[in-house]
TrEMBL record:
Cleaved by autocatalysis into a large and a small subunit. The active site is at T375. Pfam families: G_glu_transpept. This is Glutathione hydrolase proenzyme. The gene is ggt. Belongs to the gamma-glutamyltransferase family. The keyword Membrane does not apply. The lineage of its organism: Bacteria, Pseudomonadati, Bacteroidota, Cytophagia, Cytophagales.
Amino acid sequence: MNKLIATLCLLILLLPRLIAQDRLSGKSFATRAVVMARHGMACTSHPLSTQAALQVLRSGGNAIDAAIAANAMEGLVEPHVNGIGGDLFAIVWDAKTKKLYGLNASGRSPYTLTLAEFQKRGLTHIPADGPLPVSVPGCVDGWFSLHKRFGKAPMTDILSHAIRYAREGYPVHDEAAFYWPTMVARFGKYPNVKETYAPTGAAPKRGELFRNPALANTLEKIAKGGRDAFYKGDIAQTIDAFMKKMGGYLSARDLADHTSEWVEPVSTNYRGYDVWELPPNSQGIAALQMLNILEGYDFSTIPWGSPEHIHRFVEAKKLAFEDRARYYADPAFATIPVQALISKPYAAERRALIDLNRAASRVDAGNPALKQGDTIYLTVADEEGNMVSLIQSNYRGFGSGMVPDGLGFMLQDRGELYSLIDGQNNTYAPHKRPFQTIIPAFITKDGQPFMSFGVMGGSFQPLGHVQIVMNMIDYGMNPQEAGDAPRIDHQGSSEPTGEKMTDSGLITLESGYPYETIRELMRRGHKVGYGLGGYGGYQAIMYDAKNKIYHGATESRKDGQAAGF
């Protein structure tokens, strides 16, 4: 028995090498080579979405058009993580102006739902499903905002790929098939869920054909009628009537008044590279705060995967996440000292709090100026040099369980992420945007695009962004290796929803880190374990400006595809 256990432990440690086999070059954990192309590139978490994007590019559309096509397809083929019932954020590199543009397409809470209503019900947290966590879905307005400013192809052509597959069907892939039965079991009590997602009475199995004709009809109305077909037409009226029937608060007025917002991306310079994120209400600046803290350490002398590497990373995360819990919220309702939070002097103050030999069990938010989540990320680049970094989500799994009659999609439960504690930046209020986990990212070098990338996975996303940046800049990995490298997660920090950090939390490590590292982390006071499926997914396009070549990457945790031409 002991020999068997020892053998199993050895297999776990060697798993990344066994998966990757014996590569001719590069890191042993890389699952494939980088994809290279000159004229266009699309990297998404599903091959059909990648192919839809490439078809749009080949037909004369640009990267923005192709990204919208891919996102529409994603809502069909990966309904367990995104869809038109959710929100969207994007960063666009526009080749003409040679500038980055940020879009916040997140929705707001209902006008008629108040904090007092939650308090009257005796709730300390907003529930994860049902009518209460539903906020306005911003995705469709995000598509049309992007298209109005940058698009070329007709929206009828852009959405035609998703419409066709929704009508004709597509084979359900591995990851969706894994989560689908749980969704049916959890949300089957609500109207229209089984009719839409389990029309045979059971969740579709891997490789079975799934059709969503109701979604095809909805997308067709949007393609022909524009964003108003969703926010002011029949679709809005159907959502309003359904939510009233379910005892909900989202109304036609909430939908009609929705607007996206163009925002200025914010950045920090990490060892000569400018890393860009979007400002709150998203959590993107947590990645910038972490990078600023970590820049103070010389990782050329700290081996990748060593206790020193992981300890510094986790302690920097704890500090950034305390500020995340205190400050990040809708800037229309709260004062958020963004520039101070991402400043180098503030990072130096925070870095001084790290004990290099001991895990912190409690940290406080600074005063600079005075978790589960399921998501898709995709990135597209075109021959003109335009690049799009786009992320979209329903938040927790399929969403809230609320499927309006005959529309073929589920409304998000993003409203779960408000705090119900009076007086906090992220405390619930009517017509307010909640704290958001989804974050696209971009890197420039000397004023030119270097890489468009993102990592999915709720609260893990800032950690994922930092690991990608460090893997490439500190440890010399290529975009594919940077995404395939075993990941580090940490849970237990304070949250914008009111939870407080009470101990050192839990580090979870993917297979591939040596036991000696785990043992030393435990000696420093960390609790270390394994997690299953909580490390996000990743897509990236790096631009080689000298040779004018795109380098695309997708990673093995998802069923994605990087492809170009």
